[in-house]
Design goal:
With about 450 residues, this protein is α+β, with helices and mostly antiparallel strands. Helices cover about 20% and strands about 30% of the residues. It folds into three domains: about 5-150, no CATH class; about 165-305, 3-layer Sandwich (Rieske Iron-sulfur Protein); about 345-455, 3-layer Sandwich (Rieske Iron-sulfur Protein), CATH 2.102.10. The protein is built from 13 helices and 29 strands.
């Protein structure tokens, strides 16, 4: 199996006290003298690293904690073990090389960073990819999230290559797919498409025009979300890509025009000149289902061509096999909630009219309750779960649903039959109930983004 790109880079860069790892960092171009330069100097050969560490110890302040953690995480040098010992002595913690533990401890305290911490990050990550510099340089005051929670994911910008305007096949030409293969189905303005998980997991983003609408479909494999965003906002098309960084184990996107960083879970910029401008992208529903069920419902569907132009092992389950097979996380979050296991899937619901009310419903619960009603704010809704386990959410406007054949028809309390479509529920008398946008996510990823969420399980 070709190793996942994230795992490949993490194997190269993850610090280890026993395994020698090549230092790929070139010398830093350090600008004017500043407090951060002594930390960056660990990556040069022009100064004594031991003397630098002694100076840091003698002038110690809490703002140095995150700097040493980030340096130790990337540094390939015998002095790394001394840095770890300094951290343990100054913080009274004993995490050794467990950087997830260091970060969790750090993130559960009040943020303490130097005034030019943003420029430290710009210089620290510049040798990996010069484009990273612009993400951070002189941008601390634009950030709407904790800057120390932005963590490198192990790849360069678009190092996990998005599929841009990928070729689509007619359903009958997709001989590489089996009926039980998992696909992500979308419908926009009558344009019906399916994107197999086995392909999209290797690319984590598709950028295309669907039904005349410019969209970006973002698959954060780490937190199990596939969200389809309309990338045109107030007449401006935002050309998005994969930044290479994470926030709470959720990938951050970037826009090509300003190199601002964007939240995948919320579809809004969180660092850079676009942040804090009230921009939040509209998103559409994504149906997680089987190829056989999607094709039955939509024989006119088109599906992603397996000939993507990239050499990957696109067999079902090949991508992220080890990660998906356990409940362990690759990158941690500041906090956890054990109401469900980390990677238990939930149906995620939020609505722009009720920004303070988020709802998570366990997918396993919905399989046992194919007709389930709840509400967000003042909006009543019903979740219908079909025979493949796919979930579709609709507003009810006072209609009470009693049964669902888990295929094409639902019946309300008056005996009226409603046809289930991707756009709405349609009664014989012409009434229609609109679809509400929803998507699947791993419990830990949704909870990390929305810790005040309600949970039904």
């Amino acid at each position: 199996m070709i190793p996942c790109l994230v795992l490949l880079f993490m194997n190269i860069f993850s610090p280890s006290p026993t395994l020698p790892v090549p230092n790929v960092f070139s010398p830093y171009a350090i600008p004017s003298p500043s407090e951060i330069n002594q930390f960056l100097s660990f990556f040069t050969t022009s100064t004594s690293k031991h003397e630098t560490l002694q100076a840091i110890e003698s002038d110690w302040k809490p703002e140095y904690e995150v700097l040493l953690i980030e340096v130790a995480y990337l540094l390939r040098d015998p002095v790394t073990s001394e840095i770890i010992r300094t951290l343990e002595k100054k913080t009274d913690q004993n995490f050794g090389y467990d950087f997830n533990a260091w970060y969790e401890w750090l993130w559960n305290k009040e943020q303490a960073v130097l005034p030019d911490y943003d420029n430290f990050k710009a210089q620290l990550y510049r040798p990996i990819d010069p484009r990273f510099t612009k993400y951070f340089l002189d941008r601390k005051n634009t950030s709407t999230i904790r800057l120390d929670e932005i963590r490198w994911g192990g790849v360069k910008q678009d190092g996990i290559p998005p599929l841009r305007s990928p070729h689509m096949l007619e359903a009958n030409d997709a001989g590489y797919l089996d009926d039980d293969d998992i696909v992500f189905g979308i419908v926009i303005n009558g344009d019906v498409r399916a994107y197999p998980k086995r392909i999209l997991a290797w690319h984590e983003m598709l950028v295309d025009t669907v039904g005349g609408i410019p969209v970006a479909g973002v698959y954060c494999t780490l937190c199990g979300t596939v969200i389809l965003y309309k990338t045109r906002h107030n007449g401006i098309d935002h050309h998005l890509g994969t930044s290479g960084f994470l926030y709470r184990s959720n990938k951050l996107m970037y826009d090509q025009a300003t190199q601002s960083l964007w939240s995948t879970m919320e579809g809004k910029p969180v660092l850079g000149p676009m942040a804090g401008k009230g921009i939040e992208l509209e998103y559409y529903s994504v149906v997680t289902t089987t190829w056989g069920e999607w094709k039955r419902r939509h024989p006119e569907t088109r599906v992603l061509d397996i000939q993507t132009g990239f050499a990957r092992d696109y067999d079902e389950g090949a991508a992220y096999r080890d990660y998906f097979s356990t409940d362990d996380l690759m990158f941690n979050t500041p906090f956890k909630n054990e109401s469900l296991r980390n990677k238990d899937e939930i149906v995620a619901l939020r609505h722009p009219d009720y920004p303070n009310d988020q709802l998570a419903i366990a997918a396993e619960f919905l399989e046992d309750n194919p007709v389930y009603t709840n509400r967000i704010g003042d909006l009543d809704l019903v979740v219908l779960t079909d025979q493949s386990g796919a979930n579709r959410v609709y507003r009810t406007d006072g209609v009470r649903f009693r049964t669902y054949d888990q295929q094409d028809e639902a019946i309300d309390s008056t005996g009226t039959t409603w046809r289930v479509t991707e756009r709405n529920l349609v009664a014989a008398d012409g009434r229609a109930l609109d679809r509400l946008s929803s998507f699947r996510a791993f419990w830990f990823g949704w909870y990390a983004a929305f810790p005040r969420t309600r949970l039904v399980k």
